[in-house]
Amino acid sequence: MTMMEPRKHGDASDGTVGGRQSRFEGSMKVTGTATYALEYPFENLAYAVLIQSTIPAGRVLKVDIADALAIPGVLLVLTPEDDLGLTLGADWGGNKPAEGPYYPLPRDVQFNGQSIAAVVAESREQATEAARLVRVTYEESKYVANLNDPNAGEGKLMDALSSAWGDAEAALAASPVRIEAEYSTPREYHVAMEPHGLTAKWDGEQLTIWEPSQWSHGMARMYSEWFDMPYENVRIISPFIGGGFGSKGQPLAYGAVAVAAARKLGRPVKLAVTRPQNFTSYGGRAGTKQKIALGATEDGILQAIVHRGASETSVYADWPEQTGAATSILYKVENFSSQHRIVPVNSVTPGALRGPGKNPSAYGIECAIEELAYKLGMDPLELRLKNYADHDYQSGKPWSTRQLREALTKGAETFGWSRRSHAPRSMRDGKTLIGWGIGCGTFPVIRAPSEAMIRILSSGKVEVISGAIDMGQGTYTILAQSAAEVFGIPVDQVEVHLGDSRLPGSAIAGGSMLAGSIMGAVHKAAVAARDELIGLALSDANSPFRDTGANTLNFVEGRIAAPRGEAPSLTLAELMFALKREEIEVRRNTLPEGASAQEQVQAWTTMARVQGPTMGDYSMHSWCAHFAEVRVDEDFGTVRVSRMVSAFDCGRLYNPRLVESQWRGGIIMGIGQALLEEGLVDMRNGRTVNNNVGDYLVPTNSDIPDLQVISVGVPDHNASALGGKGVGEVGIVGVAPAIANAVFHATGKRIRDLPITLEKLL
Amino acid sequence: MRDFSYIRAASASQAGSAAQQSGAMFLAGGTTLLDLAKCGVSEPETVIDITHLSGMSGITVDTAGARIGALARMSEVADHGDIQAAFPAVSQSLSLAASAQLRNMATIGGNLLQRTRCSYFRDPGAFPACNKRNPGSGCAAIGGITRNHAVLGASEACIASYPGDLAVALVAFDAVVELDGRKVAVDDFFLAPSNTPDRETVLQRGEMITAITIPASAAAVNSTYIKVRDRQSYEFAAASAAVGLELEADGKTVRDIRVALGGVATKPWRARSVEQALIGKALDADTVEKASRLAMEGAVSHGGNHYKIELAPRVVTRAILKMGGLA
Amino acid sequence: MTRSIHIALDINGQRHELDVEPRVTLLDALREHLTLTGTKKGCDQGQCGACTCHVDGRRVLSCLTLAAQVEGRQITTIEGLAGEAGDLHPMQAAFIEHDAFQCGYCTPGQIMSAVACIREGHAGSDAEIREYMSGNLCRCGAYNSIVAAVRQAAAEAA
């Protein structure tokens, strides 16, 4: 891989942890030299194209491939008839739900858009043309199109997600002021700009896969189980991915198909999932609905919260989009009851989309709390502050840090909230109604172990080596900053190698857990490497420091010297040369001492070691408060976000420049969720009819005003070794309710089902 | 896409005769043809690249009006100072369409001929029933998700809306489409589906649009194009209106008014009933609102497009009041 | 029967000869036939802008352009933007300075679009930049930074 050359901007402190170092791999990305999964050149490459079902449920009776095979260049057509010889594997927790063979192209059709066949040819164009000529005969059976299908049923209660304390029903009934409302969110999609796909190549028993991955080690493990081969024989290479947002953390059926095709043909196979096929090849955010009842005193003290929610899941796997996830921890309340059900429908199993659970959950509670404010005639800011949770009432644990009060007050001050006129429809500019709303967000601190390797080279460079992933959140950069700080060198003296399952293990780039995890491992390894170098420098016969009497050395501004500052002072390269060392290599992990080799592999390849926010003495979360201004055209019903201020408590920021970009990215997704995004399903056949980015609308540049983001966090060393809390997902949580609340303030119309499209306001 | 042959036409007559073969299609900007070929809707056997033909991309404006070559790019016409001055609605209809990249690629002739964005039309694999693609096979849109479908000019055979913007502005100002050998008024050039939705225009096999002309008028000089859509840009219209207005010397009585609708009909929709209700009248908000609703006479909704019946007259009203200095 | 044709493409000032089927798009010619993978495929349907490059200096979508169509025209891709010695184009430098990208996948298209946007004279204000850059989707949400980068580069170019 070519070397990255970080550009110098700002001042020297940018290159240390907490500095605004510009993106380490930036020059590669702006010159088109960052290579993504489908961009590696191969000899003898074959191209695979998927064929997906057009019925929502039933069986594939017959697949007629004769016409497809006749197309020039076609090498292979895979159908449910083909036994690809795969075995069911464990899920990402490392749990194996069943034994037996795995059919990535199954005979049973469980949703419209399910992959059921694939064509492999010499070119993508030939494979695509042939795919159109494959004729599938189905036997159709009954189906449930989506959550609103009359045949959807009540689904099943997820007991593990039920939460209750006090006596919520009684307290609600006794409350002088009550509101009850039902909120819903539609199916939403990740729409990472890089569509899914992979290139697979066998070399004897070795399998190499170039695939965009949020978790190189986990995906390698899952492929190895499917193909019943040793984990060490699978290698996932993913130094750059074009967005993930939760969609690229596990291998999917099409991956198995490409690998199997490569094995059958003895050639490397590239499979590109088309943009429309992306909409059904993996799950987006499930559609949800939730009923919330709030009870309060006349002066706005919450007495009870009763929450009942449901989300779609597939008919073949359970995946909850937990609508009660944020409801229980945002406010102080002594009586609480929350339940969540999952309703099987004929769709692909929903997945994790930025802020899973917390996002729709906050939509419900943050709209409800503001509806309560209006009913009480209270300022929504005041109501929130009045019910501030001094600790986590659900777990009973104290917060590790919670700067939500600061986020609300600082955000309000910056936004100018005190200038608000309370009544709906009281602010306008000609034909434009103006409204302001608040939405709070939260995302748990999830912790996991990682390992990392540091190499000090005789050239004076320091290498950081990890299988961890940078999907745009800035892993390359913060790890370079961490190593640079430990060794007192400029960032351009550091090299960072990521994104390869052969490299040291790491947590997934997901759940906002990676930065805290990998920073801890890299810091530990870097300090250990530095200490080893110091040890050598103080004891080695060839070392210029041997006789100084110092018992440690300082690494400052690229030079190494004894603490009292007297001679000698050497650069890293000069010291390595004096010690006659080519390299010093140190590997450390953040597992408990004495973890066996097997436990280590398990830690990197499953979620077994992942710890939730309350698995310790504290309840640990990131928090935010969004303040939104919307402008609504009184006649057309179109809503535009004209101003937004968001204040965040994410603990210590490792790189504020990159963090601000993450925050803004989450906010923009939230704006899309509030106003534009909706997966549309034709009830007659379960087809996702807007399976493209012209009909499934994500925000364009002109939809987004300047987004002002503020940090109110303080270092939280319970949350992570270096004091940071997760930043990647909290930004999307709370945006949609802030906008919905602003729309109500502008128009007097309360729209509870997202997205808030113009016809709902006409 | 199915495989096809590529011919680069050196002359209009070569293009015309090559186009007589079955399965031959003209390729200009490619933004419609290649898109639909990828969807499996169009399956040309030969594409005839006409973008190198000379003499078809000029833009001239004089006191009689404008003449725009069919191969002029959308962006060239949109940014043309004389078009902006004499036909602002035309310029705006172009600037508000698509994206900058697409406007650099797409030609005026091709833009007129763009096809519906109906999700059912565009997904032959999942929805074989489409009278526009396959006459007699039925209409999958009716009974489906129809938020973007037409409320005007539809039939039981087809409710697909015409998505373009430019043609809406052209029909408001009585533009004429020049083919090689005949001229057709824009309003007559486009056909409502009736029971032949596969016939969208009067073009015969092998015929090529060579130019469009727009007669000058005072109403055209005082014109605008308003496009309402879910997101701020890069999206087709939920409803749009091209309006031109000429007032009498008193500054409030209507001498000439042109109104056309987009995003709500099966073809670019001239709203003459609105015009007739306002000619000779004094402009005020109430009068305009009442007249604008006449545009929806005969509107029929299907499923989720009912909002267009409410929205479209409001867009017309806004445009008229804006041109009348009352907005 | 596939009918390959022989075409010569002028890309970034270099002549490339290739044999492709007429149906091959410029985007696929670049990525699959010429290993010029800087131009990205985001949707292949003209709806995202990731495949933006220049043809005769104008920004276009390469996924809706046939390779055969642009024979004889000058094509510029992201790989052709930096100087001979590898020095970054001012737009590329501005993108880094303002952190106008995250995952980087839409970035080449954004940059090619932005360079042309200034050349077209459509970068006169933040509002104009936003509108005229709306043909390039960014799901990571780098929009604010993209506007800042284009504003800076426009000022430098003025």
Instruction: Give the largest interface pair and sizes.
Output: A-C, 66 and 61 residues
Range of helix content of chain A: 10-25%
CATH class term of the largest domain in chain C? Alpha Beta
Task: Tell me, briefly, the overall form of chain A.
Answer: globular
How would you state the average pLDDT of chain A, rounded? 96
Helix content of chain C: 25-40%
Strand content of chain C: 15-25%
Q: Termini separation of chain C (Å)?
A: 53 Å
Structural class of chain A: alpha+beta
**Shape summary of chain C:** globular
Structural class of chain C: alpha+beta
Q: Based on DSSP secondary structure assignment, what is the total number of beta strands of chain C? A: 5
The order of strands across the largest sheet of chain A is: 3-7-1-15-12-13-14
Strand content of chain A: 15-25%
Radius of gyration of chain C: 16 Å
Give the tally of structural domains of chain C.
2
Largest sheet of chain C: 5 strands, mixed
What is the quaternary state of this protein? heterotrimer
Q: What string gives the helices and strands of chain C in order?
A: EEHEEEHHHH
CATH superfamily of the largest domain in chain C: Beta-grasp domain
